[in-house]
Structures are given as structure tokens and as C-alpha cells.
Write a structure and sequence with these properties.
single chain; alpha/beta; Macrophage Migration Inhibitory Factor; two-stranded antiparallel sheet; elongated
Length: 133
Amino acid sequence: MPIINLKVSGREDPALAKEIVNEISRLTKDVLNKRPEVTVVVVSFVPDHLWFVNSVSIAELKLKSFHLDIKISDSTNLKTDKARYIETVHASLTTLLGNIHPVSYTAINEMKADAYGYEGLTIEYKYINTPKK
């Protein structure tokens, strides 16, 4: 269900990417109650000299930064869930990456269930056609 695109400042580091993916996947499950088996995380590294805040590169500032963009189904989480997710993502990535620029973003995009899906089916279709327990 959720797809997460995460940009991280710095040099490509597969071991760090795996560690980040494990943590973001855990938070997505624990905080937003999303199923791990349908959670996708894509990590991209952007060189520090190509990441700018207020026209100054992260390299010049000697900081790290990230931008996490997650797509979830509309109205499946409370405002408090989303606020907690943003807070815990920031705290976790600060721990993993080190000195984080305060202008590091987490964006939660809520997609309408009839305009979002996987396996060639919308989330709305899956919800309507899944037997209720």
C-alpha cells in the first residue's frame, strides 16, 4: 500500500540504505499500521554539494538532510498518527545520519482509494472485495 521515496544527502551507501529501510519500514508498520508485505521503500542518495537549503549546499553547512515522501490511502490514519510518524521519522533519521539540517522534510500524501493501487487493482476495489472478518 504505501510507497516511500526517500532522498538522503550524501554518498551512496548500500549498508546505510538497508539500515534506513529497515527503520522506516518498522515505523511505517508501528506508527501508521501499514502492512510490511505491501510497503515499498526506494532510497536515493544525492551528493551533499547538490543539496541546497536557502541556496547554500549541505556540504558547505557540514550537515545532512533527507526528504521522505510517503503515499498512503486517504483517511486511513488520524492526524495524531501522522504527526507522530513525522516526529519519529525525523528522530530516527537524525540518529542514523547524524547532524541533520532542521529543514529536512517528511511528506505524507493521502491518495484517494479509487486512484491508487497495486496488482492492477485500486485500493477501493481491494477493500470492497476483501471478505470482512
